[in-house]
Amino acid sequence: MGSRTFFHHREEEQKEERKHSLQMSSTTRRKKFKTSEEEETFSLSELSIAAALALVSELPKDHKIRREADILELEQRGQKRTGFGNDMERFEEEVIRTCRMLRVRADRKGLRRKAVEKARVEKEYIELRSGRPPMFWIPLRAHAVWERMDVKLACTVLGSPSPQVTWYKNGVPIDPRLAPAGKYKIKNKFGMLTLHISRCSMEDSAEYSVQVKNQHGEAYSFATVLVRKYYGKESGFDSEIYKRSLLAREADFAFPMKPLFSREKEPFTLSCYFSSDLLDHQRDITWFRDGELLQDSQRQELKCREREASLTVPCAHKEDEGFYTIHVPSLDGHKEQTTYVFVRDAAAETPGAPGSPLSVKCHDVNKDCLILSWVPPSDDGGSPVLGYLIERCVAGSEDWVPCNAQPVKTCRCPVLGLAEGHTYQFRVKAVNKVGISHPSKASEPVTTRDPSRDKRVTVIPYDESRTIEISKDELEGHIKIPLPPTNVHASEVREDYVALAWDEPDPRGREPLSYYVEKSVAGSNCWQMVNVDVAVNSPRFALFDLVGGRSYRFRVRSVNKYGISEPSLPSPPVTAGTKLAPLPPPSQVLAFRDTKTSVVLQWDKPEDGLEPLGYYIYCRETGAEEWQTVNNKPVTCNEFTVPGLQPGKEYVFCVKSVSEAGLSESSPPTDPIVVRPAIACPSAPRGFVLLHCGKTTMTIGWKAPKRKGGTKILGYFLDQHDSSERDWHGVNIQPIPQRVCTVSGLEQGHLYQFRARAMNLAGVGEVSEPSDLFRCEEWTMPQSGPPYDVRCTEVRDSSLQLHWEAPLYTGAAPVTGYYVDMCEEGSEEWRQINKQPVATTHMKVSGLETGKCYIFRVRALNKAGIGPPSLPSDPVVAKTRPGTNEIELGVDEEGFIYMAFEAPEKNESSEFIWSKDYEGPPDPDRVEIEEKGNRSKLILKEPSEKDLGVYSVEVTDVDDDISASCTLTKEDLDKLLKRSHEIRNPLIKLISGWNIDVLEKGEVRLWLEVEKLSPKAELHLIFNDKELKSTPTHKINFVREKGLVELIIQDFCADDKGMYTAQLQDGKAKNQFTLVLVDECFAKVAEEADAKRREWKRKQGPHFIENLRWEVTESCEVLLTCKATNLRKDTKFQWLFKQKARAGGVFDPQTGKGTLCIKKVTKADEGQYKAVVSDQRGEDCTQLDLTKGAFEELLKELCRISALSATPLKIQPTEEGIQIYTDVKYFTDYMKTTWYHKDKQLESRDRMKAGSTMNRIWLHILNPTDADKGKYTLELFDGNSSHKLSTDLSGQAFEDALAEHRRLKEAAIAEKRRARVVQGLPDVATIMEDKTLCLTCCVSGDPYPEITWFKNEKVIAFKDRYKMDVKGSVVTITIERVCNEDTGKYSIFVKNKYGSETGQVTISVYKHGEIPVGTEQEIPAGITMRKPK
User: Fold this and answer.
1) Looking at residue 1413, what is its pLDDT?
2) What pLDDT, on a 0 to 100 scale, did the predictor assign at position 962?
3) Contact 794, 964 (CB under 8 A)
4) CA atoms of 981 and 1030, how far apart (whole Å)
5) 838 with 729: CB under 8 angstroms?
6) Exposure string (b/e) for 1080-1107, b if CB count within 10 Å is 16 or more?
7) In terms of Cα–Cα distance, which of 570, 388, 376, 584 is closest to 495?
8) Which one, of 859, 871, 806, 807, lies nearest residue 833 by Cα?
9) Are 504 and 540 contacting, i.e. CB atoms less than 8 angstroms apart?
10) DSSP, res 1267
């Protein structure tokens, strides 16, 4: 019965599994079936799609019948008993396998049919596109234009491949090379064909056609162009054609956009101005920042008006810094301008705190964690950034919560502990030793989610808007105990953390998973769980508390509600604490001149480094110490234009690389560069006009180039072109300095065009556009010709000065005046602004509207009438340019009246052109002009009414107008002459009036002070109408170099009452000052003088004027000082300590200063000190109590100065270990010293010995190990405050010190054991013939050294008369029966493995009866020794 029940349950479980397999096509952890046609395995997602397609498609009837039969069979089989045996089981399995194979095969055929159908449609579409004869989508259309207007024929063609294009005029192909220059312009842009015909004439009326042809066919399009001749009374700029062209002109940029400087948290507006109103098709303006399209939002507001487009950022962040580009649509595409917006750091709350980080971004977002990155700030506040603090908040709130307790050192960090499905924002703060920066801009909101959900869910659309979602979780419901994760590895290793990542188990199962992370030291099999208190719901985790330098391995377990998986395979070993090094700085940083306020920088990428996040640029003026930040958002390019510099100033620049590790070191600074415009070739001349015409000559004028290239225009080259010819011909070989040229040798009646090029020091500029066609016909009209060279100067907000040149052709009568016309740019209405003609070639135009753009023209008048108008001036905006200076009117130090002008910019070739009344330069006999740098000064030699008038000045060879004027009126001249007279005829300036001082002896001092006087100044002192002379009782002092006048009255009495007057004269300058000393004033002074006289008499004996006091010198000595006065030779001075005489004091009778120096203060020096001065006239004393608190204050000051004298901690390897020490001037036990290692207090023990001497404090580390690495700090406490000194004994410093210690230790051992000749051998020895010579010495060494004797540097062979005896450390050499041949230099050489040494002696043998020369001592056996000198 039990076996039946068991088999019944087993059968029920198998039935459920097979039913689930048939319904959902699950293949998890089961065998994959293959068709007989294709041996191919399908993935789970493919089978899921097939199942979904089967659900939405119409099933055949036989399939439904088979399915019902299968289900009925399964139900009936479920009711069977288990006694049918194994044969029935195998049969059932075969039936199920066959059913499943049929279902898979049917699904596969359905998928194959859909794929074939889609491929067929795609193939037809490709074939349709691959080859196509050309056709005109938009054909040509006819045009009717006025003579001398441009026309553009356009059409759009389709065809594949792109067809060849040929244009025809009346059936003849058009070749632009054979036509006059610039006549035809043919373009083909993306199928849009255009033919541009410039300045149409009657000959251009024709039928134009275009042929397009490719390998599949050809097509044609035709259009007629009709050119009409204009017969109106007015022509040129008064014609309707010109007015219409003005109306249809597209708006252009009025000014280039200049760099904008803003500050963090403040708004800024970037504006772009246009020369005229924007047309309808130009209003779709777009803005870009660093190539990214900007939309109108709360972050930025975009506006577009008639002549202005603006972008406003209400609250700037450093992320808003960058290149801003405006795109304005045009008929030819678009026009654009680019500028750079700088966003400075906001003022730090704590001075010296760093700037805020920027570009906070989120990466690798999971359920409960993510990776945060940011960019370090450019300004560190003057001290290195120590790390960063991260804060988070739920999006929409302002409740910021810290994410890390300790600052992270790199610009990338994992953030853990997030909640799934919540939306967060993050911000970062930088930290240095001074303080914390402002927070960065908050990151974009990010929602935590499972990133693998999209891969595990398949969405299938059907029935238009309906979908089916198939999740892998539903297919893996049979998974209970989860499988272990795979691919455990370290995704990031930083100094502060190690980030782990792994792959989820596959299959994962339906239940939610979490993970346990375990770690183990590499080489160990002891595993420790690291996230006991922190739930890990994502396949990511970060560890922050690993020991640096140690290798770890990690493994992960999966957890669900059913249980815990087996551990994963361990990760490869990971070494914690790997420090991310900053990138090297860029190389080859070069600076180049650009404009008057900018410099271009170029540099190379860092060598052998990763790609940086960008670069920060810094600059400073030459001679300044502080570097200024240029950009606060890293630039990613290798070139940058630094704007906003002061013209003419000299700067140096440097660049830093930016990476996750922070900022690199600064690159080497560039060579100093002066901010000036770069010299370049000038732009093309423009505005050609016919000024005079003869039968075969024409006089042509033109306008100067808009850009002169930063230097003087040296001349022009003019070319001419006959419309009947193909080629251009040069008019001049040498450059023409003027902008007017008469061309001769022309043919009457022919049409000519002209073009020109300008030349400067940089070379010849680009060629201008061809001029209009001018007909060579002699002018005979009675009116004058057009004026020319109309230009504007002194442009201000509401006025300007207009200049022009008189016409070269005067007509039938001389020119009598001029009319000036004005119109706003873009308007067709010219308005005459002067009712009466002006006789001069200049005119002041007033009443202009600020900000509007105007154009001017001039017409000349003679008796025959008004002539044709001049060429219009360049458009000018009525607005005072920033930095515009006016003429300064004043009087200099010498009394000369001057007018001075300082140019905001000036080239090396620029000149100041002064003019009076705009008629030419002032009379050189009446003025003198001086120039220095950017300043010009006009001095009036003899000012009078002849000098009244308008003075103007212009600066040449600059692109922008730099000019000013000043009107010298009669009123101004009178004021200036008065000021000039005051300077040339000055009064002596009074600094301090009469003062009365009563001196110590009762003398009265009357004095006054004036400005400094010359040595020739004179003084007359008058008392009651009588001049005083200097006498012993009334002494007069006159100190000219100080401007001091004083009268000292010895015995002040009633006779001195009255009036005192000082009369002074110094060259032309004069003045006098009076003092009235009578009544109460006199009585008060007399009383005070009498009192001080009595006090002085009291102090005739010796006395102290400075009491006894102490001070501690920088050398830590204590000085007790006092000062006495009124001393004589017999005056005595005595020091007392505790009522007893104290020796060692010094007294200087000359100065009266007494000094007692205590060099080394001890407890014995505590007590009462007293100084006494006395002689026959009296005695005085002063005392100083140095006990208890006073003595303690002295010790505190002594300790403070000693602590301040401490040198930085130094590392000194020794034989015993490593010594860390500092030197002080004087160490006393009152100073408390404490040593710290890694912020932990050290105590003296066997291996760590702390000590001190009188001038040194040290810590000796004996037999150092790796545990001794780290930061060591010495704290010196002087009783009031602590002074800390630190050094880092780690890394290379530790390795070097340890290596030196070992070397010294080995050297000491080697020196101790080295072979040596200790004692014995003299320098010189003499001996008589036939005597026996014994030389004895001692040797040492461990191991015992090898011994070798030499004679005259040759080894001695010990035989016959030569014998050597070695007894322990004593070595003896014996020479029997010495003779003259034994004379020589003997040496003993000892050697072992630790070293060697040589001892030498010189032996001299003399004969019987001779006396040895130079000997001093006779030794036994007839040997005489000579001692060394």
Assistant:
1) 59
2) 92
3) yes
4) 36
5) no
6) eebeebbebbeebbeeeeeeebbbbeee
7) 388
8) 859
9) no
10) G
Burial of 388 (0-12, 13-18, 19+ CB in 10 A): buried
pLDDT confidence of residue 230: 58
Place of tokens 């000021």: 979
How many angstroms separate the CA atoms of 309 and 967, rounded?
Answer: 39
Name the residue among 1050, 1184, 1175, 1185 with its Cα closest to residue 1125: 1175
* Euclidean distance between CA atoms 974 and 565, whole angstroms: 105
Query: Are 547 and 598 in contact, with CB atoms under 8 Å apart?
Result: no
Q: What is the DSSP string of 275-314?
A: SSPPPGGG---EEEETTEEE-SSSS-EEEE-SSEEEEEES
Q: How far is CA 1226 from the centre of its chain?
A: 46
Q: How far is 176 from 195, CA to CA, in rounded Å?
A: 10
Strands (DSSP E) found in 539-608: 540-543, 551-560, 563-564, 574-575, 587-593, 599-604
Residues of the chain with pLDDT under 50: 1-10, 19-61, 79-84, 232-246, 1415-1429
CA atoms of 1372 and 1360, how far apart (whole Å): 16
Cα separation of the two ends of the chain: 125
Q: Distance between CA 393 and CA 373 in Å, rounded?
A: 16
Q: Find, among 1239, 1240, 1204, 1237, the residue nearest to 1222 by Cα.
A: 1204
Q: How many residues are recorded in the chain?
A: 1429
Q: How far apart are CA 1319 and CA 225, in angstroms?
A: 125
Which pLDDT score, from 0 to 100, does residue 51 have?
Answer: 45
> Which residues are within 8 A (CB) of 659 and not within 5 positions of it... i.e. 6 or more apart?
411, 580, 582, 583, 610, 612, 613
Nearest Cα to Cα of residue 1001 among 1045, 1029, 1027, 1035: 1035
The pLDDT value recorded for residue 669 is 93
Reading the block at residue 176, the tokens are: 């632009």
Report how far residue 43's alpha carbon sits from residue 695's, in angstroms, rounded to the nearest whole number: 94
Contact (CB, 8 A) for 336 and 325? yes
pLDDT, tens only, 1304-1321: 888 888 888 888 888 778
| Tokens 């610009």 found at | 411
Closest by Cα among 1243, 1223, 1242, 1214 to 1285: 1223
Q: What is the pLDDT of residues 718-749, one digit of tens each?
A: 999 998 888 899 999 899 999 999 999 999 99
Query: Which residues partner with 228 through β-bridges?
Result: 146
Q: What is the pLDDT of residue 4?
A: 42
Instruction: Give the DSSP letter string of 770-800.
Output: P---EE------SS----EEEEEES--SS-E
Separation of alpha carbons 785 and 862, rounded Å: 10
**Which residues contact residue 94 at a Cβ distance below 8 angstroms, ignoring those fewer than 6 apart?**
none
Q: Label residue 1161 left, alpha or beta by phi (over 0 means left) and psi (-120 to 50 means alpha).
A: beta
Global pTM exceeds 0.85? no
Q: What is the CA radius of gyration of the chain?
A: 53
Query: What pLDDT, on a 0 to 100 scale, did the predictor assign at position 1418?
Result: 42
1067-1074's contacts with Cβ under 8 Å and 24+ in sequence apart are 1067/1014, 1067/1016, 1067/1017, 1068/984, 1068/985, 1068/986, 1069/986, 1069/987, 1069/988, 1070/987, 1070/988, 1071/987, 1071/988, 1071/989, 1071/990, 1071/1010, 1073/990, 1073/993, 1073/994, 1073/1008, 1074/994
Query: If phi over 0 gives left and psi between -120 and 50 gives alpha, with beta otherwise, what is residue 710?
Result: left
CB 268 within 8 A of CB 287: no
- Do 1049 and 1064 contact (CB within 8 A), yes or no? no
CB 825 within 8 A of CB 251: no
Q: Which residues pair with 592 in a beta bridge?
A: 600
CA 1124 to chain centroid: 62
563/565 Cα distance (integer angstroms): 7
CA dist., res. 403 & res. 391, Å (int): 5
Half-sphere exposure of 253 (CA within 13 A, CB side): 17
